[in-house]
Amino acid sequence: MPAITYPGVGRRISYQRRLRRMTQQQLAYAAGASLGAVRKIERGERNPSHDMVDAFADAMGVDPAVLLYDRAPTRTPVHDALPGLSAAIATYDLPDEGPVRSTAELRTAVTEAVRWRLAAQYTRIARTMPDLLPELSRAYHRSSGAERADLAALMVKAYRSADAVAYKFGAHDLSARLVDLIRWAATESGDPLQSATAAYVRTETFFAARTHAAGLRALEQALDTAPAPIGRAQTAARGALHMRAAVIAGRAGNAAAVHTHLAEARILADRLPEGVYTGTAFGPDSVRTHEVSVAVSLGHDHVTKALGIAHEWKPSTDLPAERRSGFYIELARAQLWAGRAEHAFESLQAARRIAPQHTRAHPWVRQDAATLRRLKRADSESLSNFAEWCAAT
Q: In b/e form, how buried is each residue of 98-120, taking b as 16+ CB within 10 angstroms?
């Protein structure tokens, strides 16, 4: 991959490394680079590739934008990649001529994209999808029979990874187009589990439009046609739909539906170990994180419930980073409502350590950091730095 030419990138890598009291050797080891490469990059004698910047960012637990820009701007490399992503899906049914890898190789590439989504590595997804999505379309249109159905299922997963980028970074029109493609590919796959995934992801469009009651109806219709919970994947698919229904019911202010769907999700979760099933994390811990989410969705009167859960339990590192950071983002809001500003800031910092790209892109983080900045004294340098990092106003 060609080197990038952002001025000062080596200086910023050096600064972030020293801020974390890491040696150059420690950074090299954590990032899978050579010590000589780290030294040359920090001295400005060599420009790193995008992959190297991502590896350094992962090793230090920062958003790659922090290494690329002097001031982490509202616009990020992900925003820069969105037009290419939009162009990649414009010809999903009439793909250009080009190379196509084997189905096994494409499956490996899609599996990696799913892993990036769960780890909130949005920059990598945004950089990869403009080439991968057209290649999947070419493969799909050149295939037939069972292979074509398999490729359609891979497209569901790839479109979902692309949609995570679009939705998290506020490109809701692009997200809606990707959701339509997810639903189309799920139908083409002939797999009821993929259709359940499509219904789960479609809920984003209702969140974006704030049509929560309609979103709850859509999920309940999806539950009517979801596979019976006779195996692990089927059980997880149904349980995930119940989790999602509980959250959107909370946004709709429908407490009765919240309790119904959460109860069903708990019953199904108790039958499974925590894990990722058909691209969605589900199990007892995932349901617990959603209990906090639901309490925050229902509003101020339910803050005590969220705080009580967090007092007794914290998500383990076995949960995907995106889900763990989401837990702390939602907990921070509950703590802020309860007047616990210090604890709220600690939770936002925890979310940032776990998944910096997810945290920085989350609108609640910007809103709550701005509120905390107004509530705190002006000399709180760490809070000011955090607010500037996430572009809180």
A: eebeebeebbebbebbbebbbbb
Q: Where are the beta strands (DSSP E) in 99-185?
A: none
What are the domain boundaries of the chain? Answer: 1-72, 74-190, 196-298, 318-393
Residue 306: closest CA among 323, 294, 319: 294
391's tokens: 């572009």
- CA geometry: angle 71, 72, 76, nearest 5 deg: 135
Q: Are 286 and 205 in contact (CB under 8 A)?
A: no
pLDDT at 4 over 80: no
In 3D, which of 165, 1, 8, 5 has the Cα closest to residue 84?
165
CATH of region 1-72, choose from 3.30.70.1130, 1.20.1260.10, 1.10.260.40, 3.40.50.720: 1.10.260.40
Among residues 360, 355, 345, which one has the least CA distance to residue 392? Answer: 360
**What burial class does residue 371 get, using C-beta atoms within 10 Å of its C-beta: 0-12 exposed, 13-18 middle, 19+ buried?**
middle
DSSP helix/strand/coil, 76? coil
pLDDT tens digit sequence for 207-222: 999 999 999 999 999 9
Nearest to 78 by CA among 325, 361, 356, 320: 361
Distances (CA, A) of 365 to 77, 217, 328, 357, 371: 19, 29, 10, 12, 10
* Amino acid at site 393: T
For the segment 332-345, what is each residue's pLDDT rounded down to a tens digit?
A: 999 999 999 999 99
Q: Is 83 helix (H, G, I), strand (E, B) or coil?
A: helix
Q: What's phi and psi for 6, nearest 5 deg?
A: -70, 120
